[in-house]
Design a protein that fits this description.
alpha+beta, 1 helix, 40% helix
């Protein structure tokens, strides 16, 4: 019997199967990476806007916090990639000299949200602190 050179059909099929598994796994990982990268970028945008909003509300005099509505006062143009989104402000007064101001941004039909809260205390002397 003479020896033939090359690969058998079984060896070629096994090689193609392994190559298919590697390529499929790589594509799935790439797709998942893109989704996670987008989610991370969205979260960074949301927390940047929350930080800006908290700074504005921190500078409002304590006695004027009651009159504020539930809308963001800062520019929310950074949130354009998250549209449609909801930007909400909620004020609670657990005591007369303390106010909890909570900021929430919801996007992706409510599947994702970012929250930030600040506590404001009436010190009496300084209107900003």
């Amino acid at each position: 019997m003479s020896r033939s050179r090359g690969f058998s059909l079984i060896e070629v099929l096994v090689g193609l199967l392994i190559l298919t598994i590697v390529i499929t796994t790589t594509i799935a990982m790439f797709t998942q990476r893109q989704a996670r990268l987008r989610q991370a970028n969205d979260t960074i945008l949301a927390y940047q806007v929350l930080s800006n909003e908290a700074e504005i509300w921190r500078r409002i005099a304590f006695n004027q916090l009651d009159g504020q509505g539930t809308a963001f006062l800062s520019d929310t143009a950074l949130l354009a990639p998250l549209a449609p989104y909801q930007a909400l402000v909620h004020i609670e007064s657990p005591r007369t000299d303390v106010k909890d101001v909570s900021f929430t941004i919801r996007w992706d039909n409510g599947r994702h949200d970012a929250k930030l809260s600040i506590v404001r205390v009436d010190t009496g002397a300084n209107a900003l602190w």
